[in-house]
Amino acid sequence: MKHPLIAGNWKMFKTIPETVNLINIIKAGVHKITDCDIVVCPAFTTLAAVSKEIEDTKIELGAQNMHYETEGAFTGEISPLMLKDVRCRYVILGHSERRQHFKETDELINKKVMAALKYNLVPILCVGETLEEREARHAFEVVKQQFDRCLKNLKAEEVARVVIAYEPVWAIGTGKTATPEQAEQMHSYIRRLLNEQFGEEVGEKVYILYGGSVKPDNIAQLMAKPNVDGALVGGASIKAESFIQIVSNASSKEAANAPNR
Ligand code: PEP
To answer: Domain tally for the chain?
Structure first.
């Protein structure tokens, strides 16, 4: 059975001293929790510092974005090779803030997913609809289109190494969480797409995380749903206590009789 996976997206917050302080409190708070996989995704400038602090722990390092080329004249960009260099294992790709503010397209995200896999990085591929799209009853269609385009030309064994994060845009940083039922509906739909297009073995293997205003008091209900394998946490991940609590509440999923899919 999969352990829950909780990933913290620290966005554009925290200087190096602030980050070191945060990771050390988290480290101390989660060191006894063995049945939850934990990933932290700090800003580029603090990756090396966090990498050093988590060396002797089971916390994994992730980045929030990357370019798809290995190197070149791409001023201001960071390559997969550079992420490997600081011992990143994960990289968030296609976050809605990247799509919205930096006009990232599914085609660009697809190139990044392929580059991440080439370098043995685990892409955390974000998909999700806007409020307008949900209200127009297009949520499933939108997510399917992102899924198809971002995973285009990938082999089943490559898709098996991808983590998918369902992040309804209307729930990110807004305090509005999708209900566990809404999350489960979309997660089971994504699972079905995986099963149909890449086979059940892949469908079973792929982690599907929920993201959007996850907090210590709503994680357990979300995790209780059979197709919710974990969470991508923004705001609540940069407060040590709430992140520790989320990890702790999520890790009780196994104890809490997770139903079989
Ligand atoms: C995110 O940034 O991926 C996110 C889910 O943010 P928040 O938890 O703050 O809604």
So the answer is: 1
